[in-house]
Amino acid sequence: MKRLNHAIFALITAVVTLLASSAAAGDSVRLHQRIAAPGPQVHLSEIAELSGSAADALKDLVVGQFADEQATTTITLEHIAGVLTDAGVNWARLSLAGCETCTVERLADLPAAPAIDAENPTLFLANPAGGLSVDGPLTIGEKLTAFIHELTDIDSANLRITFADGDQPLLSQPVLSDRFEFEPMAQGIPGRLPITIRRYRDDQPVQTDRVRVDVEQRYLAVVTVQPIQRRQALTYDDVQIREVYIGSAGGKPMTDVDAVVGQVCTTSIRAGEVVLARHLQPPRLVRRGEYVTVRCFAGNLVIKTVARAMQDGSIDDVIRVRNQASGGDFYVRVTGRRLAESQGDPNPSTQEDGK
User: Fold this and answer.
1) Are 263 and 323 contained in the same domain?
2) Is residue 217 part of a domain?
3) Is residue 312 assigned to a domain?
4) Cβ distance 132 to 102 under 8 Å?
5) Domain check: are 289 and 277 in the same one?
6) Do 258 and 306 sit in the same domain of this protein?
7) Structural domain of residue 231, as residue ranges?
8) In angstroms, how far is the first alpha carbon of the chain from the final one?
9) Of 98, 142, 194, 355, which cross-links 185 as Cys (Cβ 3.0–4.6 Å)?
10) Span 334-350, mean pLDDT?
11) CA 5 to CA 261: how far, in whole Å?
């Protein structure tokens, strides 16, 4: 059941992302990482930033509930997607993004304000009770996430950012009034990105930390459905399109099944593995020593001859062949299985008029 829920959430996320480009400007729900709310019910507007009329219409939607005496609860992006779907949200008008989980702390009930003696009033100040609401990030982790999004031109909905477990105590700290400087210690997104965090207070450096961030990009990529052997030509039964997140993959993932089918694998590939461009090469259509039918174009003539291949060749490769009649070598472009074309005149023994 858990796998089914993850599969449904992945499908919803894929649909939301693909439709986001057509969504009305600003119509989005972005989940915060940490928030405080009075409870017992938790509403969407308390844990997420809502932009646009479609999102604002959902602000009172109940997305969580504190049990009696419960001080903290966690609400996931997957859960939010399910609640919105059950509410009949139009995913063509709304995008869902933000942190994978939101930790919600229940605000403690404040003591009742003392009664005011009308004849002897006493001036006092009290903090108002209510949910915490801010425009910017609440924690160092949220602020760092926003910084990473600014580093790349990849749509934030197509990025997954993961922090090391050991960095969570630091990243969950509130920003408050401190200033932060983030310095990446490596190049390239997606991939593993060490980042130095410097905290300033009253314009003075007070703390320096280093965290490790894994940034992955979402693709609808070609994935194998069964093991593939080296030198095996791929068929439609061997691959399918799936939603995947890729970090430092060492190559470009293939995203078009039609471009993969018929290609030959240069290495063995496990079932469920993403097919990369470096895994593939065109099939050999001509092998060294084989006889090749060559068509040569000269003016309005098409001259056909048979030559022996002196090299292997795939589609569009230029290879050297030997004219069987004259014994001379010339170069041709491979066009098919044992077929080639040339723009020169190989002095063949037979000719046919082109039309």
Assistant:
1) no
2) no
3) yes
4) no
5) no
6) no
7) 222-245+252-281
8) 66
9) 194
10) 71
11) 31
Q: What angle do CA 245, 249, 251 make, to 5 degrees?
A: 120
Structural domain ending residue among the three candidates 235, 264, 281: 281
Domain count, the chain: 3
DSSP 8-state assignment for residue 188: -
3-state SS assignment for residue 77? helix
> Could you count the other beta carbons within 10 Å of the beta carbon of residue 234?
23
User: Which amino acid does the sequence have at 163?
Assistant: F
Q: Which of 2-11, 85-94, 323-332 has the highest mean pLDDT?
A: 323-332
**Closest listed residue to residue 286, CA positions, set 332, 234, 325:** 332
Same domain, 236 and 325: no
7 lies in the same domain as 43: yes
Classify 74 as helix, strand or coil.
Answer: strand
H helices, E strands: number in the chain? 7, 23
Beta pairing class for 239-246 and 204-224: antiparallel
Total residue count of the chain as it appears in this document: 355
- 198 has a pLDDT exceeding 90: yes
CATH classification at residue 265: 3.90.1210.10
| Tens-digit pLDDT profile for residues 224-240 | 999 999 888 899 999 99
pLDDT of residue 114 exceeding 60: no
> What would the mean pLDDT of 69-77 be, rounded to a whole number?
85
